[in-house]
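== Sequence and structure of one protein ==
=== Format: two labelled lines per protein ===
==== Data for this protein ====
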Amino acid sequence: MRIVAGKYGSRSLKSPKNDATRPTQDKIKGAIFSSLGNMFDGGNFLDCYSGTGNMGLEAVSRGMEHATLVDNNKGAISVIKENVKSLKAEKETKIICGNIFSVL
């Protein structure tokens, strides 16, 4: 799994070793962002079931100012933190461990 485009383009991301998360495939992720406008000039992105941080980090890579990454699985949160740190995206992200309905 990797970041498809933008400032972090082609950078690899880690994923949990178990099957507790199902990261969005690069092809699907590319199609979603292409339909949204491909690149952004600011804005905020909420990744409700973040898993690996894949979608939120892709949004930041493509120009979003900030991404909030939410997951209720502590193992997933650990992987998200690793991915954020590897991209040096700490200032552009907020990581929350919790149920999305409680968080909202």
